[in-house]
Structures are given as structure tokens and as C-alpha cells.
Amino acid sequence: VDASPLPEGAASCALEVDLELVDFTRAKELYEMNGEEKLAAQAKAKAKGNLLFSKGALQAAIRQYSDAHTRAPGASDFEKPLALFEPTMPGAPPPPPPPPLAPEVIDAKVAESRAIKVSCYLNAAACYLKLHDLAQAEKSCTDALAIEPTNVKAL
């Protein structure tokens, strides 16, 4: 991107742009995702919130942190197969589903999701504090404490 200054009077000129959509891939809906995909989407929403927070876009950051909560997977989400594959040849049987995850692996992934959720509640609380909305900051901290009662940052 060229950062050179605009010529004199260019800011008041009309600009017309034609765009052509060449390709489009629809993102998966939440109900179509398995646990791994939900966990990745949750982490991505948190990262977007963190970026927005660093830029001072606090309301937008709060929306991303809230979005991260809705994407948090539960243990049952990790029981879904990772992907459904189409047969490579017409008439060929589909490959067998992957083996189920061990209970301790599922527990670790759910714990990871809960940690992201707590972090998002605390980050949202920081946003609310910067916006001087103490009631919402307190609510976010209370929500974090409901998940992790010994969290010092939420106290």
C-alpha cells in the first residue's frame, strides 16, 4: 500500500470502483463444526478480540469475546468425526471414521476451551473498565469466577 499523500483536492473527488467476486466458500455454521473446529474458532475469535482491544476498538473487542463464548465446544463436540470424506472413486466405500478420542484427551481439550472462555471474560471486563461500565465489568468477572472460582484476576 502506497502511503504517499493525496494530491490537492483528491479527497473531494468521486471514486467509482467495480468489484467482481471470483470465488466464494461458505464458512461452516456452528452446528456443522466438530470440537476441534469449534476450539479453533473460539481461539480465533479471542485473537480478533485481542487485536481490536490493542487498537482501542473496545466495543468490537467485546463482541469478539462474546462470540468466542458461543463457539466454546463441550465434551460431546469432540465425539463428532473430524471430517466427512467423499470417496475418491465412484462407487468406492468411504473411509472408516477416525477412532474416538480418549477421555483424557477430551478432558484436556474442554479444559483448554474453558481457559479461553475465562480469559475472554477477563478481557471483556478490562474493556468494560476502560469504558467506565463497572456493572458489566463486575458481571464479566463473576462469569469468569463461575468457571474458575480461584482466579485471582477476577476477584
Report strand %.
under 5%
Assembly state here? single chain
Helix tally equals: 4
- What is the overall silhouette? flat
Strand/helix succession: HHHH
Poorly predicted runs = none
How many strand units? 0
Question: Helical proportion?
Answer: 40-55%
Largest sheet: none
Radius of gyration: 22 Å
Distance between the termini: 45 Å
Secondary structure class reads mainly alpha
Provide mean pLDDT, rounded.
88
Can you describe what's shown?
With 155 residues, the chain is mainly α. It is 48% helix and 0% strand. It is built from four helices and no strands. It has helices at residues 35-54, 58-70, 103-130, 134-147. α3 (103-130) runs antiparallel to α4 (134-147). The termini are far apart.
